[in-house]
Amino acid sequence: MFAQKQLTLPLRFKHVYTTIKAIEVRIHDFQEMMKQLYLTRDQARGVEATFNWLADELQELKEALDGKDKEALEKEFADVIAWLASLANITGVDLEKAAVNKYNNMCPKCKRSPCQCEFIKSKPNASAQNP
Ligand SMILES: [Zn+2]
Questions:
Q1: What is the pTM of this model?
Q2: Using CA atoms, how far apart are residues 87 and 54, in angstroms rounded to an integer?
Q3: How far, in Å, CA of 32 to CA of 48, rounded?
Q4: What's the rounded Cα separation, in Å, for the pair 42 and 126?
Q5: pLDDT at residue number 114
Q6: 125 alpha carbon to ligand 1 midpoint, in Å?
Q7: Taking the chain, what is the end-to-end CA distance rounded to the nearest angstrom?
Q8: CA 110–ligand 1 middle distance (angstroms)
């Protein structure tokens, strides 16, 4: 399912990395892999419970961001994208298509790259808005 191919690098790096091979996995391939691994279980669990698992993984990612363990951080990122793919699979959403359609080399709001929208550092806390 995953194509193994020569890593494509800018020409100026070719002399350093010509022997490096990488497994290139598109978002679509990853979502298909998750479908093969877990679709039956994800369908049985349902949308709400699968969303709750994703929310738990996001909380674990938040906790890993507070620490200094890079390996733990990578594992939490992996869990978040895995549960996101599971949720997409049971809701019939093609993650890659949706992401690229919305973020197609430009900001979806201002249509520029890099984004020129007004910079807002913090998103208002939803729980503070809805006590
Ligand atoms: Zn923008």
A1: 0.76
A2: 8
A3: 21
A4: 28
A5: 96
A6: 21
A7: 47
A8: 4
Give which of 128, 102, 106, 104 is closest to 116, Cα–Cα. Answer: 106
φ, ψ of residue 112 in degrees (nearest 5): -125, 160
Q: Are 34 and 85 in contact (CB under 8 A)?
A: yes
- Measured in Å, residue 3 CA sits from the centre of ligand 1 at 34
**CATH 3.30.565.10 given to domain 26-129:** no
Helices (H), 14-104: 14-17, 27-45, 47-66, 70-91, 95-102
Ligand 1 geometric centre to CA of 113 (Å): 8
- Write down the domain spans for the chain: 26-129
Q: Enter the tokens of residue 54.
A: 């994703």
Mean confidence (pLDDT) of the chain = 85
Could you tell me the distance, in angstroms and rounded to a whole number, from the CA of residue 69 to the centre of ligand 1?
32
What are the beta bridge partners of residue 21? 6
Tens of pLDDT along 64-104?
Answer: 999 999 999 999 999 999 999 999 999 999 999 999 999 99
